[in-house]
Amino acid sequence: MADAPLVATYSIAACDLDAEQWGVATQSKFLAVGSVVPWAEPHVGAVATQAYANPRYGPEGLALLRSGASAEQTIAALTAADEGRDQRQLGVVDANGSSATFTGSECFDWAGGLNGPCYAAQGNILVGAGTVQALASTFEATSGRPLAERLLECLAAAQAAGGDRRGQQSAALYIVEQDGGYAGLSDVRVDLRVDDHEQPLSELRRIYELHDLLFGKTPRETWLDIDDDLSAELTERLAQLGYDGGLERALRAWAGTENLEERVDGAERIDPVVLRELRARK
Q: Where are the domains positioned within the chain?
């Protein structure tokens, strides 16, 4: 097999076993790093493939994990079958949160990785070891927060510690959860890419915040009851925006227009996020 493109980058493959989520976050001085590095499958694991990247490590690694191989066994099998292994870098987290990382002997300095429970962090062509250490220590320090937020914090900390010594260009965040995607009909919870940008991490955070606004999930116990006064307010606000025909119909029509339909369920209770956004409309 011919050498694949050089993906000089840093990444973290990780999971949140309580939330049953697996994912990868990555940044690089490389066009569209999200098209190469991140791979994940619910209850199977996550794979990050980089350096002189072998993209086949993604699907083949997930197949090994799906068959019951551990993270260490998966890396051993992938690299044993690859004559270009010395130029590869790879991080794997399995279904149980076990992890492993691999850096080939011919990867460009600085290159290396760290792993621990539920994460594998790695990078190459970096300013120094501090970038990968920042990925690992930030992941460990943010336990209890949503996985997406933790991974974004990891990328920011890694960049602050030095990052890719050639600079920045692209970044990506990919998280899977069984039935956790749009309308409960997809396993892809978050799939965001910044393919070419002067500040890819800032842009990735911006679009993640927009994604969370539209598709995030507010705990049902914090939703508000729609009493008579709130019903009257909602009906009036919706009418002013051109939506009528009964509160439930109007609310759903407005939410669909604003891409907030995932946050609306009938007209007896309302997500506080939806109420805030509706009140902000003029």
A: 6-215, 220-280
How many helices (H) does the chain have, and how many strands (E)? Answer: 8, 13
Nearest to 4 by CA among 73, 87, 79, 60: 87
Instruction: State whether residue 4 is helix, strand or coil.
Output: coil
217 and 196 in contact (C-beta within 8 Å)? no
Q: How many CB atoms lie within 10 A of CB 221?
A: 5
Question: For 5-47, how does the pLDDT look when each residue is reduced to its tens digit (9 = 90+)?
Answer: 555 689 999 999 999 999 999 999 999 999 999 999 999 999 9
Q: CA-to-CA distance for 266 and 273, rounded, in angstroms? A: 15
Interval 79-96: pLDDT, tens? 999 999 999 999 999 999
Give domain 6-215's CATH superfamily.
Aminohydrolase, N-terminal nucleophile (Ntn) domain (3.60.20.10)
* pLDDT for res 8: 62
Q: Are 247 and 231 in contact (CB under 8 A)?
A: yes
Closest by CA position to 52, among listed 77, 23, 76, 82: 82
Instruction: Give one DSSP letter per residue of 134-153, joined into a string.
Output: HHHHHHHHTTTS-HHHHHHH
Alpha carbons 148 and 227: distance in angstroms, whole number: 35
User: Quick one: which H or E segment has residue 213?
Assistant: helix 200-215
Question: What DSSP character marks residue 221?
Answer: G
Distance of CA 39 to the CA centre of its chain: 10
| Distance separating alpha carbons of residues 126 and 109, to the nearest angstrom | 7
Pairing relationship of beta strands 170-176 and 21-28 according to DSSP bridges: antiparallel
Q: Is the pLDDT of residue 4 over 70?
A: no
123 forms bridges with which residues in the sheet? 10, 112
